[in-house]
Design goal:
With about 120 residues, the protein is mainly alpha-helical. The protein contains two helices and no strands. The longest helix has about 70 residues.
Length: about 120
């Protein structure tokens, strides 16, 4: 005969239709509900904190992005200015070798050329 099929087994009692669960069952339900309520509350708090942190991080990244865009704009303006200074200075340089595709900036043979070019200092 299979285990648990004995009709005299009294370890499990099914509730009768009119019976009420015992007070210890009620206390367990109350405790379980309280624990669940607290766990749900903590979960909502963690979710809210995570959303707040993401919002702050987003704001900080937007500020950093704006600062970097401003720096790119300043550096682009500085590069244009320096390029124009170089273009206006090249005809004055007599010691320049013909420019080849392999050589981006021809070498200067005298320190004099560097002394008469003034470059404004840009604040970043």
């Amino acid at each position: 005969m299979a285990q648990g099929s004995d009709s005299n087994d009294t370890s499990y009692k099914s509730p009768s239709p009119g019976s009420r669960p015992s007070s210890s069952d009620d206390a367990k339900k109350v405790m379980r509900r309280e624990k669940n309520r607290i766990a749900a509350q903590k979960s909502r708090m963690r979710q809210t904190q995570k959303a707040d942190n993401l919002h702050l991080e987003s704001e900080n990244l937007e500020k950093e992005n704006a600062a970097l865009r401003k720096e790119v704009k300043q550096l682009t303006e500085e590069a244009k200015y320096l390029s124009s200074v170089l273009s206006s200075h090249e005809p004055q340089c007599t010691g320049l070798a013909p420019q080849t595709p392999d050589l981006l900036y021809p070498p200067h043979h005298s320190s004099y050329h560097h002394q008469h070019i003034t470059v404004p200092h840009y604040q970043h």
